[in-house]
Amino acid sequence: MTSAPIAFYFDFSSPYSYIASEWIEALAARHGRTVQWHAMLLGATFQVTEIRSPVSYPLKREYSLRDFERSARFAGVPLKMPEKFPIATQNAARIFWWLHDSVHSARAVDWARHGLRALFARGVDLSDNAALLNVCRDFGLDPAQAEAAWNDPQRKARLRAVNDAAIAAGVFGAPFFMIDGEPFWGNDRRSQIERWLEKGPF
Amino acid sequence: MTSAPIAFYFDFSSPYSYIASEWIEALAARHGRTVQWHAMLLGATFQVTEIRSPVSYPLKREYSLRDFERSARFAGVPLKMPEKFPIATQNAARIFWWLHDSVHSARAVDWARHGLRALFARGVDLSDNAALLNVCRDFGLDPAQAEAAWNDPQRKARLRAVNDAAIAAGVFGAPFFMIDGEPFWGNDRRSQIERWLEKGPF
Fold first, then answer.
1. Is the dihedral of CA A98, A103, A105, A109 positive or negative?
2. Domain B6-199 top-level CATH class
3. Could you report the per-residue pLDDT of B58-88, keeping only the tens digit for each?
4. Under an 8 A CB cutoff, do A170 and B51 touch?
5. Where are the domains positioned within chain A?
6. Cβ separation B73–A202 shorter than 8 A
């Protein structure tokens, strides 16, 4: 049995990423796998692919807003769509990589869960810097350090490099999973991922 | 328990529609439901929504071609992507509605399965009229009658009306299911549909 880690790409602004973030670790652990989390910006992939947010298309918008919440209920994950959606999440993502690179990857993962839950379970607008600083404070970060991190050109470059690498790997949406070189896109690929982890390629 | 029929919208050119067409009847029957099949053209919805085929976007194209076949294997449905894809399927859809309106809805459903399998299991190009006539012949139709049907302005108008009604109902992709007024989009909503049929709204 291989134990190669699962690469999990997510955007803080993606409701399906939030749902998947609540099940991927337990699923991976049941199959002896670890998860490498990658905070990224869908906006970067959208520029390359000409895809837009599902809520930016007529008809698909209404369906998606309904499906986000229904898919969350189906997965047993509390989700209430925030009033403002989608939002810019580059600062939340830069904090992720700052913690990942300067503290520990596990701390970054905890931040990812904390941020995603703030937005999708409690409706906190992560694109509002004052609100984001409060979320940082709740998480035990020093707000001045957090703000310095998201304004740091080095952190900005790090996130751009992550986006570029994701695109180079074929990532065009979120959540996106790479497992043993096999790509899976979407919270709704959960059952295919489960079969892959159980029985290998199919 | 309600026994309202499931509305199932499909496009002959949609691989995910083909996969769903192979499981929807059995799933519905297990829950005492019937299925109303609606042949439609995604091209009509694309005009309204500005959505394009998944294979028309960079990166998403490569993923989708891989996912079509993997999702078919996952569902136990034989699928081999045809060389030419996507294709125009208005003539196959007009035959569907001709059989539906002039013969019997069950005969139209059999035609749907026959046509979808011809394209996705055997690679027959349904947009080629000579090939389509052969598929009609195999199905026991008179080729001259079939050709007359797809050229008949009344059949063309019927298909346009179906597309318009689908769009009015919120359909923007295929396969698309309406169950008790609840919309489900995609072959990958199968498990949500199953729960809905078992336990009702969630």
1. negative
2. alpha beta
3. 999 999 999 999 999 999 999 999 999 999 9
4. no
5. 6-199
6. yes
